[in-house]
Structure formats: C-alpha cells, structure tokens
Amino acid sequence: MPVYSYTYRPFEGKYLRHFRWWVVFLEEIRLWNRSRIFHILFLLGMLQPLARFLQILSYNAAMQDPNHPLAPLIRSVTWLKVDNELYYHLIRLQAPVVILLLLYVGAGSVCSDRKNRLWDIYFSKPIHWYDYLSGKLLSVIFCGFSLTFIPSVILMFTDYATKKSSTWTGLIDYLPTVSDSFAFSLLLIVPSALSIVAASSIFPTENITVISVITILIANSTLAGLLSNFMRDSNYMQISFPVAIYYMGQKIFNVQRNIFFRTDDINGFYMFLYIFMVCVLCLLICIIQVRKAERG
Description:
- The structure is a single chain.
- By secondary structure, this protein is mostly helical.
- It has helices spanning 21-33, 36-45, 47-64, 71-76, 84-106, 111-115, 119-122, 129-145, 149-161, 175-202, 206-230, 241-253, 268-295.
C-alpha cells in the first residue's frame, strides 16, 4: 500500500471543459430554494400572471359565445381585452416584485462569498473569474425571467389553446409578441441584475447592498422629478432609469399613448444608449472586483 508522504493523491475525476458556470448557477438556485422568504416573494410575483390567466380564459369564452352572461361586460371594458398590449402591462406591472426578488437573491450573491471566505474554495477549483461571474449573473437573470418572460409565453399558449379556431399555423402569429416580451424582459432584468451584483461586489453586507441600490434608485428618480418640475418640462423625466426602461418598453410594444412625456421628441436611440452605458459600467465593476478576488 503506497504512502503519499510528499504529494497529494492525483485527481481521478473528470474536469469540466465547458459550462463551468453551471456549478455556480446551480449552487445559487439551491440556496434560494432553502429560503421561505424567496418562496413568499415568488408566489407574490405569480399573482398577476394567475389573474391574467383567468382574464384570458374569460375573454376567449365570452368572445366565442355571444350568449355568455359576461360577454357584454367584457366587451365594454377595454382593459380586459386580450391583445399585444396585455403582455406589456404584465411585464411593466411585474417590475416592483421582480426588483424585490432580485434584491433578495442578488444582494448577497458576491458579498456573502467574500464574507464566508468562499472565494478561496471557488477559485481553488478549475473555475475562472468569468465562470464565477457568469454563474452569478445568469442565476439572477433567470430568476427575473421566471416572473416576466416565462409567464408571458405560458399565457400566449393559453390564449392560443382556448381559441376554437386555433390552427398550428396560428402559432406563427405569436412570434412578434414573443420577441417583444423577451426584449422588454431583457431590458428590465439585465440592468437590474448587473447593478445589484455590482453593488454586492463592492459593499460588505447584504443590508448595505440593498440600502445602497434603493437609495441610488430613489435619488435618480427624485432628481429627474425635480428637474422636470423646476424646468417645467416633463421630458427631463427620461433621466430616471425606471422611466427610461418603461419608455423603451412602450417603443418595443408600440404603445402609442405616452404616460411619461408630454411631447414625442424623445429619441429612443439615446434612451437605449443611456441604459446600455449603465449596464457596461456595472459589468466593468463586477469584472474588476471578481478578477481582483481571483488574483487574491
């Protein structure tokens, strides 16, 4: 029986050559599932999709049956109509719950590993900084998509399945709505996930991370409101980051009525550039902090 007095036993397992971020991704999800608060927030976020599900069932049943007792009521109420705009409002109204959920799952994603000295374990394995950061970001983004894009797709399939005249080729008509829902969900979730993970990589605890993100968000929106009131021009509200995201959602879904600005001289490209630059800044912060941790 050999005695390894001068060396360790050689590794006999199989190295992961690709998708090493999957290990970090699964570990994050495992930690969420152990939390009762996560389950409560997730169930709270599913209330609106459930209400929309009942709305689609009622609308299609009434529209296909003229003798339905609720048909006159449903036809007279415009906001009960099932169309492309329904999915815009679904994602838009999900934003507060999504932000709360992302703050819960993302605020401690990096700072908890630093506090518990888990970086020594992660980076002692064959995991690089980009594997670690990809796993953290993708897990937070996936959490947001589970309350926005995924329910939207399920509701579209429900709308298709409950129509008596549905054909297989009718699924093609939903492709533009699917792409719009994906784009708006991406625009809402990716900047939020990047900013939360970036704050988590800077600040030492989860509480400070949550307070800092909320404070910056409130200060940003307050500054936009003060400028719009002081200059007597509501177009200054585009400085508010949430308003910029909502406005881009209106552009994606082609919602004509403008609930944020009095005029139509807002350039969508500059609004998108504003969101893109914030994302790049947050991503650079994440990369710098995680690479610093990998180097020790």
